[in-house]
Structures are given as structure tokens and as C-alpha cells.
Amino acid sequence: MVREKGLSMRNVPHFNGPEHWHQRAEEVRVLAEQMYTERTKKMMLKIADDYDELAVGAAIRTIDEMKGN
Fold first, then answer.
1. What pTM was estimated for this model as a whole?
2. Of all helices (H) and strands (E), which one includes residue 61?
3. Would 28 disulfide with which of 20, 33, 42, 48, CB 3.0-4.6 Å?
4. Which sign does the torsion angle of CA 38, 39, 42, 43 carry?
5. Which of 2, 62, 54 is nearest to 23 (CA)?
6. Distance from C-alpha of 30 to C-alpha of 45, rounded to nearest angstrom
7. Long-range contact list for 45-51, CB < 8 A, 24+ apart?
8. What SS3 class is residue 58?
9. What is the CB neighbour count within 10 angstroms for residue 16?
């Protein structure tokens, strides 16, 4: 994989928006409902919660960028 010098996640719009992470969280919750064991279901729901936290961080970054911070 070739990476450009100075390329960061901020330069990748796909990962910057909270919508992306909320969508991933919802997809994982749907998958969690299909899990057979309670343990795997809980693990999947934890991942979904983590994606929601990433969405909050993305929203904060977006607000900061709009303010010029």
C-alpha cells in the first residue's frame, strides 16, 4: 500500500462524517440480533457502541473545523 506523505484521516471524507459511524453502528446492531450466543451478541453491541462514540468524535471534529479550530 502506497501512502502519500502527510495523508491523514482528516483528508478522507468517508471517515470524517458522523453519519458513516452511525450507519456502521446500526449495521452491527442488526448483525448482533442474528448472533446465537449471548456472549457474541454482547460483543457486537459493544462494537456498535464504540462506533457511536466514533460518530460523536467525528461530529465534534466537524464542529471544530467549522469554527476554524
1. 0.74
2. helix 38-67
3. 48
4. negative
5. 54
6. 9
7. 48/24, 49/25, 51/21, 51/22, 51/24, 51/25
8. helix
9. 17
Q: Give the integer Cα–Cα distance in Å for 58 and 51.
A: 10
Asked whether the beta carbons of 35 and 48 are under 8 A apart, the reply is: no
- In the numeric block, which cell numbers belong to residue 66? 467549522
Q: pLDDT (tens digit, 9 = 90+) per residue, 7-61? A: 455 555 566 689 999 999 999 999 999 999 999 999 999 999 999 999 999 999 8
Q: Which amino acid is at 39?
A: R
DSSP line for 3-56: --TT--GGG-HHHHSHHHHHHHHHHHHHHHTT-SSHHHHHHHHHHHHHHHHHHH
